[in-house]
Fold this sequence. Notes:
CATH architecture of the largest domain: 3-Layer(aba) Sandwich
Bound molecules: adenosine-5'-diphosphate, magnesium ion
Number of domains: 2
Helix content: 25-40%
Number of strands: 10
Oligomer: single chain
Radius of gyration: 17 Å
Order of helices and strands: EEEHEEHEHHHEHEHEEHH
Strand content: 15-25%
Number of helices: 9
Structural class: alpha/beta
CATH superfamily of the largest domain: P-loop containing nucleotide triphosphate hydrolases
CATH topology of the largest domain: Rossmann fold
Largest sheet: 6 strands, mixed
Distance between the termini: 37 Å
Shape: globular
Amino acid sequence: MLQASHLTKKFGELVAVNDLSFSVEEGQVYGIAGPNGAGKSTVYNLITGIYSFEGDITFDGISLSGMPPHKIAQLGISRTFQIPQTFPSLSVEQGVGVGSRFGDSDGYDSENVESILEFLGLEEDRNLITSDLNLLGKKKLMIGSALATRPRVLLLDEPMAGSNAHEIRDLMELIRRINKDMGVTIIVIEHFMKVLIELTDKLLIIESGTKIAEGDPNEVTQLPEVIESYLGDAYADDN
Ligand SMILES: Nc1ncnc2c1ncn2[C@@H]1O[C@H](COP(=O)(O)OP(=O)(O)O)[C@@H](O)[C@H]1O
Ligand SMILES: [Mg+2]
């Protein structure tokens, strides 16, 4: 469904993404992990049309090279950000509505907004002002706004960051429901290996923009090169 081939992004001298190839199948939960600065968020910025790149990315065989972000959203690719990006003065309902306006070529669709509020369990909170929400609320709203564009693929950038164990459970359950019940393919960047092992069908590990490993999350996380480059750090952080 989504295929990156020989994807490269340079910022001046820095090669943030280096000849990276991977492919995501429809229906998968696909994980991306790697140390800070590995190029994970940059990969999202390339997929969503924020930056130009060398190599190619195709979605159902259509090249995304040179395509502007709103066109990519209308093709069915949506994302969230590492630090929740919301409109602080809007209500929850309006915030979800922004996604509906942005991604849907027919414009605002109140039924779609309503079903997303219900899906996220935010009906009661619809009139709350976004700036009054806690971190989990803001994350859910950002996911809701992304879902309102009617994506076929949703890119999540470290959705668990800053969450406690209970919130992590909650978000994992939400991601599973988006995947299984809504039928949305998921790509998730995450730092927590336990979450990736439980949640993903396939895992890509990158370091310095380069692929270290890709495959079954249980197998990939056992590879010595992965443990050396990444897991040592992550386990040290966890414990
Ligand atoms: N717009 C930019 N301009 C210059 N350097 C950037 C830019 N975006 C990211 N980088 C650099 O690219 C590298 C990869 O960053 P990023 O993709 O954010 O890493 P990750 O998400 O894996 O932590 C880092 O060294 C970062 O400083
Ligand atoms: Mg990042």
